[in-house]
Amino acid sequence: MELIPVIDLMGGAVVHARRGAREAYRPIETPLAASAAPPDVADGLLALGAFRTLYIADLDAIAGNGGHDAVLEALAARHPGLALWVDAGDASPATLSRRVAGGPGRPVIGSESLADLAEAEAALASGAGLLSLDYGPEGPRGPLALHDNAALWPQAVIVMTLARVGAGQGPDMARLSAIRARAEGRRVYAAGGVRDVGDLHHLAELGIAGVLLASALHDGRLSRADIAAFMG
């Protein structure tokens, strides 16, 4: 099971994501870095283990308020062997093609950024990115038919439970188990709520392909030894 650190970008800084309440996000304070500058935080996270992938949520781009392409390019240059998964709200075939052609990073197609099923089908037809099935406190975000019909999903699917991000409540095991059962061999990645190594073991037992992590890395609930045990 792959462990994937996450950074959330807003206003040029890495912010502390909590429960999907983006209006309340503030620059992160972490023992892993001297500042909330993206290079500092990324360096601190990547020093914890032999991570192969970094997930980047460009929250300003998702909200339509510009973006952080220059930051992404700098991170790609700083860590040339690292795969970047980038959720920047890319939803149309044209923007996805530009992301693939110009980079950096592999696009993540967030269901919350898709207006309807036709847009979802057009975006996924390009085969350019991963799909993030986004769930807020109110339930599924984006086209319900996309959540319900596994035949529409690409080979890699993230289950993003926003209400549990940074909340320390544990992953939504019931939802992950249900989606994993319907995924028909697709790789399912969990995002939101991981507290400790016990949660990682439980997710591995469910057959989850990978886990997106932030808070449990910053506050030390996952040690270097814990990380190495999964990444080895």
In short:
With 232 residues, this protein is of the alpha/beta class.
Give structural notes.
The protein contains 10 helices and 10 strands. The protein is α/β, with parallel strands linked by helices and 232 residues long. An 8-stranded parallel beta barrel has the order 1-3-4-5-6-8-9-10, surrounded by 5 helices. β9, α8 and β10 form a beta-alpha-beta unit. The protein has helices at residues 38-46, 59-62, 69-78, 93-102, 117-125, 144-148, 173-182, 197-206, 215-218, 224-231; strands at 2-10, 13-15, 53-58, 83-87, 106-110, 130-136, 139-140, 156-161, 187-191, 210-213. The protein is 34% helix and 22% strand.
Overview features:
232 residues; 10 helices; alpha/beta
Topology:
Layout lengths: L1 E9 L2 E3 L22 H9 L6 E6 H4 L6 H10 L4 E5 L5 H10 L3 E5 L6 H9 L4 E7 L2 E2 L3 H5 L7 E6 L11 H10 L4 E5 L5 H10 L3 E4 L1 H4 L5 H8 L1
Q: What form results from the Cα inertia axes?
A: globular
Low-confidence stretches: none
Work out the radius of gyration: 16 Å
SSE pattern: EEHEHHEHEHEEHEHEHEHH
Number of helices: 10
Fraction in helix? 25-40%
> What is the residue-averaged pLDDT?
90
Give the helix/strand class.
alpha/beta
For the record, give the distance between the C-alpha atoms at the N and C termini, rounded to a whole number. 10 Å
Which sheet architecture does the biggest sheet show? Answer: 8 strands, parallel, barrel
Strand runs, count: 10
**Fraction of residues in β-strands:** 15-25%
Instruction: Give the neighbour order of strands across the main sheet.
Output: 1-3-4-5-6-8-9-10
